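Aim 2, interim progress. The first record below pairs a target sequence with its structure tokens.
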Amino acid sequence: MSSCRTEYVSSSPLDTEDFGRRLASYLKPGTVIALSGGLGAGKTCLVKGIASALGSSENITSPTYTIINEYQCDICPLFHIDAYRLNGDEDFDSTGAGDCFSAGGITIIEWSERIPTSVPPGAIGIEIEISGPQSRIFRLRGLSL
């Protein structure tokens, strides 16, 4: 993976899911994606698109209260982590969620900015900016599309 920055502009939730499907073609077991962005930025919508492209037929929901959702996909499991309710890296460590990084799946962390030292080196970073009522700007680090 390169250190290039790439931007993608989404004009709707469906566009965000389509972007997730496109992004999924670049992912392989062991990949970690660190998402950051405010409430309603489209983090879970992006994960829905990724999961769909990876072959999951499950209903993708935000793991805000469960912290981790695991979805079965065609090539490997997808671990969906939400750090919103965590109080930093120590809290993250106590959940055992870090075990997902070495479990042979693809891991996506929502609210990764809340656990900065827990995100492994080499993770793909995606910052999501709300640019309008339906539009979003996705800024990627660590992956060139």
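The second target in this work package is listed in the same format:
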Amino acid sequence: MRRVVVHIDRMILKGFGNADAQAIGEGMRTELARLLAHPATGERLASLGHVSSLHAGKIRLAQDARPHGVGLSAGRAIAKGISR
């Protein structure tokens, strides 16, 4: 079993308050851990080697999206970017 380490240097959040950043980050960590545990995604990530940046694309959010849900959506977008 390989160990996957993902380091996110910074996250730029436009339109969110500082208080939301922790919940968004936690949602993203939770979703990335879940999705990267899937063998195919982990293998794809391992085959990429060191990646200095990844374009996750746009994330569409509901008007009433909560910070944790925003993080989950961001995690899904990142995992999708890895799977391409």
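The chain has a mean pLDDT of 83. This observation will shape the mutagenesis plan for the next reporting period.
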